[in-house]
Write a structure and sequence with these properties.
5-stranded mixed sheet; 3-stranded parallel sheet; 38% helix; alpha/beta; 11 helices
Length: 265
């Protein structure tokens, strides 16, 4: 189910390559300082912990580990999403991270790293749901309701890939938190929730048989870090991303942030 698993051949190749050799082969950036900018508005990738006020999340853990392996120091700064791509393009910050989807039009302004995560959305439904089995049959079910948080990838996927392209469609019920959408689904107030595949499997596993996943994945997006055009950080960070994928570090982060971490608890 997880989209982060390596192919069997890839996994065998990794097993045969000693991890120490991989670690030694990464470049050493000599302890230099790198300014990394984020928005802190995309849990669980990066956000402010409501209990401690600290910046935490999957991307912080990943970037901290990349810095450790490549021997550079990070200075984290914040800016709004609206300003980020231009600011990185102008060289104001050296790296940008905030769940940024790799898109051709963005590549005209910035360089992207290799993808560190693929986000695919899956259809989460009640276990006894039999009226629809995929996006098309849900779209045809006139009284079927979908829950989403406004302005998120699942919201836009619901509007443009499942429904009719009308962002005001009354079949979308808006909720403040993702947890509230799942509660509404379980309670029967809505009939469908879209969620990332890692989280979807976690919710199914934890639902004691009340939820299931149907249909094919929707709205696939690859996330990458962004850099000023021609940045000499792209190649070493790509090497570090490959190493962290290969040695299971990203799998551990997926479990920590998408399955084990509970927002606001």
């Amino acid at each position: 189910m997880s989209h982060f698993k390596l192919s069997l051949a890839g996994a065998l190749a990794v097993v045969l390559l000693p991890l120490a050799a991989m670690a030694q082969s990464l470049p050493d950036l000599g302890g230099k300082s790198v300014v990394v900018v984020t928005e802190n508005a995309y849990p669980p990738l990066q956000f402010i912990d409501p209990k401690t006020g600290k910046q935490i999340g999957w991307e912080y853990d990943a970037m901290d580990e990349i810095a450790k392996r490549l021997n550079f120091k990070i200075e984290y700064q914040n800016t709004s999403w609206d300003a980020m791509i231009q600011a990185v393009s102008d060289g104001q910050y050296q790296v940008g991270m905030t769940g940024i989807t790799i898109k051709d039009e963005r590549k005209e302004k910035v360089d992207f790293s290799d993808p560190y995560m693929r986000s695919q959305q899956f259809m989460l439904v009640r276990a006894d749901e039999s009226r629809f089995t995929d996006a098309k049959s849900f779209g045809a079910l006139k009284d079927g309701l979908i829950a989403a948080q406004p302005g998120t990838s699942p919201f836009y996927t619901a509007v443009y890939e499942i429904l009719d392209g009308n962002e005001q469609n009354p079949r979308i019920k808006l909720f403040e938190t993702f947890g509230a959408t799942v509660q509404a689904l379980k309670a029967g107030d809505v009939d469908l929730v879209l969620t990332d595949s890692v989280a979807a499997q976690g919710y199914v596993d934890a639902s004691e048989g009340k939820l299931k996943v149907v249909g094919e994945p929707l709205g696939s997006e690859d996330f990458g870090f962004i850099f000023k055009k021609g940045s000499d950080l792209v190649a070493p960070i790509n090497q570090a991303i490959a190493a962290l994928k290969a040695d299971g570090t990203f799998d551990k982060l997926n479990k920590k942030w998408f399955l084990d971490y509970k927002m606001g608890q």
